[in-house]
Amino acid sequence: KRESASREFAVQGASVDFSPDSGQNANILIVDDRLSSHERLNAVLRDHNRVDVETRPQEALFRAAEGNYDLVVISLALEDYDGLRLCSQIRSLDRTRQLPMLILAEPEDDARVLRGLDIGINDYLMRPIDRNELSARVRTQVRRKRYADRLRNNVQFSLEMAMTDPLTGLHNRRYFEAHAAAAVEQSIRRDRPMSMLVLDIDLFKSINDNWGHDAGDDVLREFAHRVRKNLRGIDLPCRVGGEEFVIIMPETEMTIATVVAERVRRKIERDPFLIHGGTRSIAVTVSIGASCLSTPADTVQSILKRADQALYRAKRDGRNRVAA
Ligand code: GH3
Ligand code: MG
Ligand code: MG
Ligand code: MG
């Protein structure tokens, strides 16, 4: 519930929540194989947090990767295991790269603490451990981590918003411009096929003129829905203009692209589109131009140009058809 509220907030302002964070109620993993030691740590932390203890360092990495932890507290004084090795494994795994690590070290461990800081631990405490200092350092790391999470989520969300067409939920022109070139370059580099479809709804202006702009919008939404339903996961459908769409199709030969295009065309033609809250239905058709990567000298522009020329022929030859 809280998450959806902050998402809505992000839509309006794309801003970050600066409200104070207690640094408590965190999920904490303690990695320590000495009973007396981890019991003391647990006693300090468990009142305000959810604490798990892992005594087997080899298991700790899996738990850290699978659990949803805000912090891992690692003792360097592990039997038969180098705590720093665990730290560097945590830093190198995608799932745990951002996970804060707090190290508990012996006074004679200062050289290892330095190495730990190099590896990317976030903070350390020397034994004997002062309980107030432990709580304070834990709270600080938890706050930092949550703040970084919020920031990252906001950036990601804002980026998604900036690349999404609000009417249809498809990628927008900005996304197309950012990703088409990379898709083309990658296909050329790997010597893989790729195709593009350009779709343009037929006589869309008359739909608006006859039934109103809202009906036109309903058609666009349903059109996008049908297009998406008939593509594969790797295809990237984008709304690049009013009633114009481009689909980037990686790993796709021209013959397959035209088969997909024909399938989409039929799905649009087959069932009438509901407008005016479902009280009316109207026939809609689409014309589609297909083209594919054909020389290493090709660019987004050259491929798109051939697809546009094919679309032009489809329109000229009577609409409601696929041309390549
Ligand atoms: P053709 O078969 O040759 O493509 O004919 P057309 O009428 O579809 O072509 P044209 O490009 O002349 O018209 C496109 C219309 O799309 C014009 C514009 O009013 C309408 N339009 C563009 N964006 C939107 C939108 O977001 N919502 C609605 N409802 N209409 C839009
Ligand atoms: Mg058009
Ligand atoms: Mg047109
Ligand atoms: Mg049109």
Automatic annotation (TrEMBL):
The keyword Chloroplast is assigned to this record: no
Residue span, GGDEF domain:
192-324
- UniProt protein name: diguanylate cyclase
Q: What is its EC number?
A: 2.7.7.65
- Which keywords does UniProt give here? Nucleotidyltransferase, Phosphoprotein, Transferase
- Source organism: Labrys wisconsinensis
What's its top-level EC category?
transferase
- One annotated GO molecular function: diguanylate cyclase activity
The Response regulatory domain is annotated at 27-142
Reaction(s) the record says it catalyses: 2 GTP = 3',3'-c-di-GMP + 2 diphosphate
Instruction: Name the coiled-coil region(s).
Output: none
